[in-house]
Structures
1.
Amino acid sequence: MDNVANVANEGLDTLTDTMSNVGAEIKETVKESLDAILSTPSSAITMDNLNTASNSMVESVPSSYAIDDTNKWGWITLYIVTIVIAILGNLLFIVSSLCTKRTRTTGYYLLINLSIRDILVAGLCVPFTLYSEITNLDWWFGDAYCICYRFFYYCFLFFLPLTLLFLSYHLFVENCKWNFAGEEGVVPRPWPHTIYIPLIWFFSAAFAVPTAFWSQVRPWKDDIYRNDNFDWRVESESQVCMHTSAATWETGSNYFYIASTLVTFCLPVILLFIPWWALLVQICGCCTRKLRSSEFWLSLMTLFMILFYEASRAPFELFNFHHILTNLELGQTLPIAEFLPLAESYKAVMKWAVYAPALLHPLLYFTFSPEARHGCYILFSRCCSCCCSKAGPDVEMASDDEKGQMLHAQQHNEDQVMDDGNVPLQSKEEGEM
């Protein structure tokens, strides 16, 4: 038996050197394996068997993604770049759009409204997500701002697909109307954004109102989106802002969680497919007239914005579906067994991806919009006259209000011509008299 003990000690040294960074649970598994080895006859124990057992146990240890000092600053840099570009890029687009008449159309007013949303997201949501998810892993802003944070988050979450729906609908209708230009003087109705923009803000704010009752600061282990592998988390003190656990509001909070998944992602994806396909057909000129330059680029940007929205939200919503199907008890069919393993790296990426459109939108605007670049040129030519030549008159394209004025003037001229045509000419008999 002494021989068995010596062999077991050598095997333990080998396992200790190989698995120095293994957690407490794995160490317990190793201890149980050694106890099983010690209970076997000495004739059956060899160093080859122990090495084989050691290698098999090491291979069975699951490898997981951990955010530590080696990659922490990469995540911090990613969030900071998102904040800076979202604020400065969208602010530059807004100011540039105000410097030119080319952007005084309903489509661009909706883009300006969306840029305001992106700036608010970058200022009111992203910094607190960075603080609570990467740097300090704690929520110490209290219940008051927890309610405000979740209200802003869900408001802006619904704001983006709603804006894309209005923008897609407007562009499709406008392009169809211009297809009949010249027939009875049909032009796009001026200022429809005065109806679209208030509706977008109203519905987005109304959708987020329940978060005022269903938000609470809770221990971090209650968070379904948590990342476990952090070297600097203080588990006894770490908290998170999430939906409430109070029995009075828990049922409503769960149903709001499900409704937000359906209303902010599933339904918009279905509804946006129709205008996305219609705009694609109009851009390609299939069975339709060729779009003008301004309509073409604005429609093309809308297609990319829809793709950015769906790609950025898909990982987050996939996790929500996974959690609903495997954890929530909604009848006898749920929960089901875990059908898809989601790693720690997946959770880290999906939290940032929700904010990615705020970073990508200004880059998209200045890449594909000649009007935005022209406004930016005018802005810098006015701010730095020594660097840019003086901008010429900005009369390349009429705005919506100018289109309405031209239509009114055209109708007025037609009425005047008709009035002039009704004046009776002098007859031959009157001339002879």
Note: The first helix runs from residue 2 to 18.
2.
Amino acid sequence: MNKKLAVIAAPLLFSLGMAAGPVLADGKGKGLFIDRDVDTFAVLPNGVSQPEGITANPANGDIYVSTFAAPFKLLRYNRHGRLLAQRDFGQPLLGLEFNGGKVYITNVGNFVGVDSKVQRVAADLSNLEDVAIIPTVGAPGPRTVPNPDGSSDTITFGSGAHVPNALVFDSHGSLYISDSFQGAIFKIANVAGCNVATCNVETLTHDPQLATAGFPPFGANGLAFNTDESVLFVANTGDDRVLKVNMVSGLREVTVLAESLNGADGLVFDKRSGLLWVCANQADEVVALNANGRVVAKLGEFRGINRDGAPDGLLFPASPVIVGNEIFVTNLAVALTSAAGDEPEEDVKLWTISTLRLPH
């Protein structure tokens, strides 16, 4: 194992190990924790590609992974990376979230001509059921962007495809779903007690900041709550941003927490440290933001393609989940441009799930 570890400014390392050290409280710390070491947790079966969503069963540490490319599958691994079960689907799968003994799934049927929906399946991957159909709200209104010279630009969004992406639960059992193309966050209250005939899909917010004209072309993506659930964090992948939705105010105001995170994708909030971890899929790393939106830690890197065609390290990290002192990350490794030879993702033949160690 090639261990690369750099710790600059010892007080930062101490604060990362505490629940709310000085770096998290006031953002004045000047250190940056960097650990580029990446371990491979599992290699997907031959012919199975583009792992996207990930979640874990807290009772036994089982890891669940969804795939975005055909054959569309939900995979179940034990804590040691052994494949226990798999289930086939007819549509691309994105986000996963484990709750109440079941795995909740976002199924992007619109990409293959059918309804996009939320589904759930038992922990052993039996008894699949539809939870809710994603409603049509259309693209959000235009976004006005001010320029330094006093002028402004207007971005008009046109996509109305239903692309449910990430999922997160609050402590009351309500489920929140991001829609990357409609620029919306949906909410299903008490989702465990309803089904596709009875679940009410509420539009929590439908805001121009949740859509994108950028690259990769996905707006609202990863979701995570802070400790007291006063803020819902939302990644906007194409805009390289992490946003905040104020959950206290009835206005559901959307503001910017952090800028210039190259391909901000999946999110996970670590209540022990108070850090928000962000998969930066175009930077091939996972970064931690403090309460002020400052990057205070960076984990992982891409080191090339191995002889067997598997990525060495992170390649297009999409979704994270924390289990114990590790972050498990899916390496989506999808080639996005039409040009040949410009992306290492073109050379991938085996897809992987990685683990990263959390700072202490």
Note: The longest strand covers residues 93-99.
3.
Amino acid sequence: MLFKATPLIFTGYAFHVAQRAGLFNIGAEGQLALASLCGGAFAAWLPAGTPAPIALALALGAGAAVGALVALPPALMRARLGVHEVISGIMMNRIAEVLLPFSLATLLGATALRTADVAPGAALLRLDRIFPSLSGSAASLAFPLAIALVVALHFWLARSRAGREITWIGVNPEACRAEGIDVRGRLVLAMLLSGAFAGLGMSVTVLGYKGYFEIGLGSGAGFAGVAVALLGRGHPAGVLAAAIFFGTLEQAGLAINARVPKEAMTVLEAVAIVLVSAAGRFARSAETDTIEPAAPDAKDEPARGSPEVAAPAAGAAEEASS
């Protein structure tokens, strides 16, 4: 369950970062796929004797850089040309889908549609080495790494000037532009951060699980991250809880596959998203219904028959009779 939840933490918070700026990063699927390919190939290219801290830092940096690079075209098209990032994000997903087998077969010369094994120093330690109770689990140190990075990015968005400006742009870009904030630059920055964070999801499958990249590894996590972000409401604790919830459903689908189709868990995920969305809508409607218009102030509208009303009326009657 922890293994299934970890990539959803990366992609879920990646979507949230873009959403803070008013962007909809639907391209996390392609960003994660190409980052996994390039990060895995780079980690396999490292010398076998590379120290673990250096190898891990280089492999994770390569994955984050490729994820940001894949997110750059949609970011520039939105900031410079006004092209909606959903259209360009879907386009980049399709490009990534074609580039994966082409790069493996033609550029890397792979015959089994997989990269070579990563360098020993670039492999993440399994959690069952630390906690014997997790014996047999595929979860690795990528899980605590995801939590630490989510918390760090959350505080950066809340405390730094650039992070606060990204949030302000998501609320009202025109007001930010009037205040002299570089709206285009912040939009590009938010999208690059989102792509880099999605690319770091390669640490779960490539560095912590398989030890290499193959076609289909980690597929679906980019799209599921959208649901995780919406369900978690953007808070780190909410994203973590939503990712664990979806990870539990995915693992449960494998456990009950002998009796019930595992797609039943996908139906439950959709039902959960619909119920949470409906609950938020009903809550907003209830708040609107409870707001009653303020009663008019007695000082502003004197009652009938009061001296303030009777005096002008008497004066008007005298003028009419004269």
Note: Residues 303-314 have pLDDT under 50 and may be disordered.
4.
Amino acid sequence: MLTTKKSSLQKRFLEHETTQIYIRIVFALSFLAILYYLYFDTTQEWQFLHQHSFGAYMAVPLFIVAYNIIYYIFLKKSPFVYQKERLVVTIFIDTFLTAYVMYLIGPISAYYAGVFLWFSVAYGMRYGKDIAYIAYAAVLFAWAVLMQSSPFWLEERAVSIGWLITFTVLPLYNFKLLEVLHKNVEKLHEMADLSKHMATHDRLTDLKNRYAFDEELHHYIDNYYHKGEKFALFFIDLDAFKAINDKYGHDIGDRVLKEAATRIQKVITNSYRLGGDEFVAIASYRSNEELQNLAQNLLFNLTMPCKNGEIPLGASIGISRYPDDGESEFEIKKRADQAMYRAKQNGKNRFFFYSEVA
């Protein structure tokens, strides 16, 4: 469950990262439009813009757009590589580029001071307490640099100190709320992950269940038509399992089922329990020799006794190949089942391919 939790958390982070990319690009393009239309404004408030080259103002938002396009391409190719590290880098890029833009636009930067508060709060809301504290430190540092370098904020010392106090105090209250919120959110996600796991897995053996088998068999067939990858379907029925239950009791019978499930999965990863003592497995293969070896290994594992050799275990296995033995889900399942029954009829503890019984 820890791996599932981590993966779920990474996926949520990825969704937030993608959303932030869109927000940054829209914000940068909007800022470009504002600069373009207001650079030539004649009111006194905007005259500050004329003290610098128009290209200097345009460079930063253009860089933001280019950076986020590259960022988006990277996410598509390597969504979970260095995820936390790139979040930290993005925090510093966001805060210091914002501070630099505010330095360039002088008095107009008064309209954008609240963006720093949004950085402190939003990063925490999206990514949790650890990232929130990094954003908090970056904001305070960037604002301190701006206070000491911007002529406008040097002149408006009282206002800049007031904002510094706001950036220092207000997020601290928010962080405590975030801590409680994220704990509750994580619990909800854990419950959702557990519910999803229980819906697709057998409770006794923890193998995937019939529902998951039907879904994944469909995907295997789709994959064949896209990539040409052949696969085989193994129907597995434990021999004399009722006798084990009758002789040793259902508790021991459950242990035998768990042991059988473990042995099947060691040979074929994609294994499922259909119910009772019936199992099924799906394996891709390249040659008939490879498939034959796989079947032999599976049978060998399932015919070794359980519980220090006290309880004999056996299995009858039927194997059908896609698309050689059928081109639909119904056909491939029916023919593996027919091959398994032939193995039962021929003395059990053996496997048959459908092509041998057709």
Note: The beta strands are 231-238, 271-275, 278-284, 315-322, 350-353.
